[in-house]
Structures are given as C-alpha cells and as structure tokens.
Write a structure and sequence with these properties.
Elements: H1 27-39, E1 42-47, H2 49-55, H3 72-77, E2 80-85, H4 98-118, E3 123-125, H5 129-137, E4 141-145, E5 148-149, H6 158-165, E6 170-172, H7 185-197, E7 200-201, H8 208-217, E8 223-227, H9 241-249, E9 253-256, H10 260-263, H11 267-281, E10 286-288, H12 310-319, H13 324-352
Parallel strand pairs: 1-2, 2-4, 3-4, 5-6, 6-7, 8-9, 9-10
Helix pairs in contact: 1-12, 2-4, 8-9, 11-12
Length: about 350
Amino acid sequence: MADLQDEPHSVGIGAEDLPAPAVAVAAGALDRAVALLAVHPVADGCNTLVRTLHQRPYHDIETSDTGVDTDIPRLRAGGVGAQFWSLLVPSACADVSGDQVLSDTLDQIDTALTLMRRYPDSLLLALTADDLADARNRGRIASYLGPVPGRTLTDSLGALRAFHALGVRILAPAGAPWAREELTPFGHEVVREANRLAILLDLTDCPPTVACRLAGASKAPVIISNTAAASLNPHPGNVTDEVLAALREANGLAMVTFDTERTGDSLHAVADHLDHVRAIAGPHGVGLGASFGTGPGHPRPTGLTDPSGYPRLIAELLERGWPESEVALLTWGNAQRVLRDAEFTSRAAGHRR
C-alpha cells in the first residue's frame, strides 16, 4: 500500500526550470521549496479546467497555450501532484432548472473522464486516498472528480449514488434547497449518505450558519475547496473566523484560492491569507485551492498567474518561518488526511449497517 513514506517518482523539477519570477524570493528559499515539493507536491483543491475544456474540446493541454492558464507542463513546473477538478456549473446559471444542472454536470463528468483517457501518462483518475500516493509515485497527477452541485439532489439520494459510481468524490451543498438557510431533514440524509460513500462535502459559498451546521452534522471532515479569510477581505465568498473555528473542531480543511478579488493582488497577500487560516483553523486545517482553469482576463495575484507559481509561494512561506513539516501538511498531508478520514468514516458506517 502506498503512503507518504513511499519514495516518489521524480518529475525532474528544479528551480532553474521555473519561469522568470514576477515576485522576488531568496534563491535558497526557492531551492528548499522545489526540494520540498518533490516529496510533498501540491494537492490543489479547485481547478475549473474541465468546464473550460467542455466549451473548447479540441484544446491540447500537453502544450502551453495562452488561451488557458492550466496545462500539464505548468502543473508539473508548479509541483502539482493531485488536482480536484471542479464540475460545478457557473454561478450565473443559478436560475437554471435542476434537470439542466444535472445534464450539464453529467456532460462535465464525461469531459473529465475523456481527459483522463486522453493523457494517461500524466493524469490518473483517483478514487481513494491510496490513489493519491500511487499517482505521485508513478509520476502522474492524481485527479479527483468534484465537487458536483448539491442542487442535482432533490428528493432522492439516487443521483448521489450514481455520481459515486461515475467516480465523483466531492459534493457542494451551496445553493441546494436542502442547505440554503437551514439543513433540512433531507439535508441530513444527504450528509449521512455522503459519509457512507466517502464523498467529501465542500462547503464553499455556503452561508456561515449552514456551513457550521454541515461541519457539525458530518462524521467525516468537510472541506472548503476555494476560499480566503473574510477577516482580511470581507468578500462574500470568503470564510469567516467562525466557520474556520468550526472546521478546526471538525478536523476539516480550508483551501486558499488565488483570486485577486478575494485575496488581493500579490503573492504576499495570498500568503497573508494562508497565515490567517493557519492561525484560526490550525496547521492541520489549511490547504491550497487556487481556482485555476480559466482563460485570459481572470484577475490573478502577481506571481501566481498559473500553477507554475507554486514554488515561489512555498518559498515565501518558508521565509516567513513556516516549518517545513507544516508546509508539507499544507501542500499534501492535509488533503490526504481528509480523504483517508472520509474513507475511515465510510468503513465504520458500513460496519454499523
């Protein structure tokens, strides 16, 4: 069984292979960052490339292209070893019918699975926590499907079980009628079934009251796949200290995004948000969810315009005094832990049944 102690397959990344830095970092810190990422690569909680490719199906991600900010060369240059591929529909589609949301979600799942088949030497569909380490050790990027929209679940859990059979491992309750202002009785059923199936709940964009209720109701850890600290920037998509404290209590994970509107316009601002989330949620409660996967024009912090910027961010954290052990949790360990804990909860639920 593969675990974090296994010897990773080297992908040949060095500080000299990175693009010219837009943000100055000490050469020694950058070398340390690259060395650390070779052993503890980034498990990124959010990338919307699947939605982008669904609209542009002939795009080749084996070569860099200015038309989109994510491709295999830049993922490798940034030390990304695992990627959660978001399958959410755009927020502008909030008024679209539930049937249309379900249809769009299934189309995106098909696009994601096609992506795995098209690039088997680089991407590996991941269904379990063991797959995370196995992919890393084989020099591939572990690919998790999800989140999918909770709005696709109405009065039946059949859709959730069908998503699981298709490989989905993350569900986003935000916007679902069973998790808008309160967690309804059906919402509690969804939480129990997600726990039984080892499907993570992604609380991104949930109202604070509902987020805290979901965190408390779930027996498995919950995540927020892309967010930032509301205390530093009161953006409506950013997480409050109350929710961060609830995540800490529930052994959950808040993954910080690279979005200028939510974090500020520099790598240093993103590091400030990571510092704050770490202080409130704890070293075991902070992760990375950049929200790459978009085309030109999406505002990104200077130095973090695409996945290749990860080593410079890690170097900044090392210069701020983060211990390497806690950086390893940030990049890799915390994501693997929540996946393993979700599977443990699932096995326990199976024994009870």
